[in-house]
Description:
Elements: E1 9-14, H1 18-24, H2 35-44, H3 49-59, H4 62-66, H5 71-99, H6 106-121, E2 129-131, H7 133-146, H8 164-188, H9 200-217, H10 219-222, H11 235-248, H12 275-306, H13 313-329, E3 335-337, H14 339-347, H15 354-370, H16 379-388, H17 391-394, H18 399-406, H19 408-424, H20 426-446, E4 451-456, E5 462-464, E6 471-472, E7 477-481, H21 491-502, H22 506-523, E8 577-581, H23 590-604, E9 609-613, H24 617-625, E10 638-639, H25 642-652, E11 668-673
Helix pairs in contact: 5-6, 5-7, 5-14, 5-15, 5-16, 6-13, 6-15, 7-8, 7-12, 8-12, 8-13, 9-19, 9-20, 18-19, 19-20
GO cellular component, one term: membrane
Transmembrane segments: 75-100, 106-122, 129-148, 168-189, 201-223, 285-305, 317-334, 354-374, 381-399, 411-439
Membrane topology: Multi-pass membrane protein
Amino acid sequence: KMQPSGRHYVVVRPLFSEDSFAEQHERINRTRKTLRKLCLYCLHCSCDTNRAKNAARSLLPIIGWIKNYNIKEWLLGDIVSGISTGLVAVLQGLAFSLLASLPPGYGLYTAFFPAIIYFFLGTSRHLSVGAFPILSLMVGAVVTRLVPDGGPPANITGFEGLSMEQQRVLVASSVTFVMGAFQLIMGLLQVGFIVMYLSETLVSGFTTAAAVHILVSQLRFVLGLDFPGVNGPLAIVYVTLYDFFSIITEYDSKIYNFLIKLHHFIYESPIAPNLEVIKESAVEAFPMAIVGFAVAFSVAKVYSVKHDYTIDGNQELLAFGVSNMFGASFRSFAASTALSRTAIQESTGGKTQIAGVLSAMMVLIVIVAVGFLLEPLPRSVLGALVIVNLKGMLMQFRELPFLWKNDRTDFVTWVVTFVASLFLGLDLGLAVGLGAELFTVVCRTQFPRCSLLANITGTDIYRDRKDYNSIYEPEGVKIFKIPSPIFFANIDFFRDKLVQAVGFSPLKVLKKRNKALRKIRKMLGLEVRRPSTDTSEDNNSMEGLDQPIDFSGIPIQVNWNTELPANISVPPVNIHSLVLDFSAVSFLDISALKGLKATLKEFLRIEVDVYIVSCDVYIMEKLHQCSFFDDEIKTSIFYPTLHDAMLHILEKHPDHGELEKVFTGRLRYKFYECSQTM
């Protein structure tokens, strides 16, 4: 029975091992769903009307929120937000198209078509869908690679008879289509969790490097210089900046400005993606799909938490996949979200995606009716607008001192991602950053901080013995904790740390004892026992020394902790019990299981009792399935809590004087702790 008692903590219960606990508390056997059972279950329920409705709501989230739309309270805010966001979307669409190496007006398509599709399929109520500077830059890298400024285009069949502008539009729409296809496939495969592998630190370093790329790429527009845009590893150093400083030295009072052209866009018909371009750009499209979704999902999650509603990562992948594929058919390039634009949509009163679709209508009005008013706008102004939008990303440099002081591993991840993205290009940089991040995860799990625990005096709490003064350590007992999963990569590390913790190698002790026993048998004139496989005549043979010690036939009792004959030396063993705390071990693989079994047997064979505590029930199931238990390793060594195991050890090996502090009975214990009333 559990009941509050002020600041007191009182527990009265039997002392449990895992075996005794299983006898008294029956566990429910749950049937796990296999893929075959899940498919049969889905087929059986496919005609269920309610399930069909739920499936429709899942695929079209608009069905769920539109019926609850509060016209009186939300409509005015959505209208104001839609108009405000639409104006920003127009300017950003024009500006970010320069990053994609396309004529400015094509950014308006990106601000319109994807937003319309997201209105029906998206789960975020505040996300403003459209051009995103980093994605635009990544699209521009593909565009300038296949259709460079200063040279012939790539040998692609669909380029015949097209102008440079048309070729670039075809490349941008094709790479956007395959990017959307990747997102759609990931959504169908339910792998929205993949974004979790992109930590905030990695994204920060990546976006900061992208901001530097964007800043450099806009210098030619802001200063009115005419040099070709390039991409690739080290391009920012050897080509772009070199070209910039070479031209600026010859710069005179004449400014080279481009004017945007919008008047012909509304008459352009949809196009199909080019298969050859898709083959050429698929490798670059995949990181674009990841980056676009990661940024959008991160921003959407912030506002969903703020306004207390849920978003579905897999549905977001579907929404952006279809949005980008649909938009690509109408000459738009990669769409995600811009942080500043979404912030405006939310802060100006936007409550739902009604604001998003109204902002798209504002863009449509510009495309159809008033676009000609923007034609005199020079590209230098748009370039300046792009640079202004980089402030937030460039200010991320301020995170470095904090990371250096608090988490050096994250600091390294940030710097590696930034440097790689800056000098190798955004696609390779993202891959390097992800590799560095995964490497840090592997290092943290492969080399965890193992520790020896001790009891905090007067409690049932156990902590690292190095961190506290008021501790109780029973003589002859070691409590070892490994705070990570145990698998093939860290099982040797685990064994080495365990040997360091106890102060001796159980295998070496076992071999020394078996070797000493052979000498004792020889001194007593007894037959030296060897394994049946041992055919050597040498009494010092190493065969069989790792097997259990066999005292049969010896007329004297051997005490390994006393003084032995002069020519026999055996390392001392100063513990009688070893407790392994598995509370932080989430899984064991087969390699670790074999290594653990061998280690336990080594300790048991030198008369050190081993106990495993707080082991996950599913790990226990795996141990049974893999024949972990035998005549030496029994289920009785497992205990549900560390304190249960310690009470059992103290009952078996009384530690007089300290025993009463933690142990009050043979089959039960009572723990009483009181503190001052707050």
